[in-house]
Amino acid sequence: MGDLYDSQRAMRQMRKAAMQRGVVAILDVGTSKIACLVLRFDGPEQFRSSDGIGSLAGQSQFRVIGAATTRSRGVRFGEVDAMQETERAIRTAVQAAQKMANVRVDHVIACLSGARPRSYGLDGTLDVSGGTVTEQDISQVMASCDVPDYGADREVLHAQPVNFALDHRSGLADPRGQIGNVLKTDMHMLTVDAHAIENIFYCIKRCDLELAGLASSAYVSGMSSLVEDEQELGAACIDLGGGSTGISVFMKKHMIYADSVRMGGEHVTSDISMGLQIPANTAERIKTFYGGVMATGMDDREMIEIGGDTGDWEHDRRTVSRAELIGIMRPRVEEILEEVRERLDASGFEHLPSQQIVLTGGGSQIPGLDGLASKILGQQVRLGRPLRVQGLPQAAIGPAFSSAVGLTLFAANPQDEWWDFEIPADRYPAKSLKRAVKWFKDNW
Amino acid sequence: MRSLIRRTVVDAPRRDPAPSRLDYRYQRLMLTPGFRASVRIGVPIVLILTIAGSWFSQPENRAELAATIEETKQDFQQRPQFMVQTMNLSGGDLEIAAQVSALLPREFPVSSFDLDLEKIRADIEALDPIKSASVRVGQGGALEVALTPRVPVALWRDGATLRLIDADGVQSGQITARADRLDLPLIAGDGAEDNIDEALNLFAAAGPLIDRVRGLVRMGERRWDMVLDRDQRILLPSEGAVAALDRVIALNDAQDMLNRDVAVVDMRNAHRPTLRMNEEAATALRRVNTTTIEDRADN
Question: What is the pTM of this model?
Answer without folding.
Answer: 0.66
